[in-house]
Amino acid sequence: MTTILVVDDELSMREFLTILLEKEGFSTCSAADAKTAVKLVQDEKIDLVISDIRMPDMNGLELLERVKEINSALPFLMITAYASPEDAVTAMKGGAYDYITKPFKVEEIKSVIHSALSARTDSPPSVSGELKTFCGIIGNSPEMLKIFDLIKRVGKTQANVLIYGESGTGKELVAKALHSLSGDEERPFIPITCSALPETLFESELFGHVKGAFTGALAAKTGLFELANNGTAFLDEIGDLTPLIQTKLLRVIQEREFKQVGGTETVKVNVRIISATNKDLEKEVMNNTFREDLFYRVAVVPLRVPPLRERKGDVPLLVDHFLKMYSKKFNKTVQALSSYSMEVLMDYDFPGNVRELENIIERGVAIEGSNIILPESLTLSIHRKKQKKRSTAEAQQLFNEEHLSKDGLEDVMARIEKKFIEDALRKTNYSKMRAAELLKISFRSLRYKVQKYNITSPDQSGG
Ligand SMILES: Nc1ncnc2c1ncn2[C@@H]1O[C@H](COP(=O)(O)OP(=O)(O)OP(=O)(O)O)[C@@H](O)[C@H]1O
Ligand SMILES: [Mg+2]
Question: What does the domain layout of the chain look like in residue ranges?
Answer without folding.
Answer: 3-121, 133-304, 309-377, 385-460
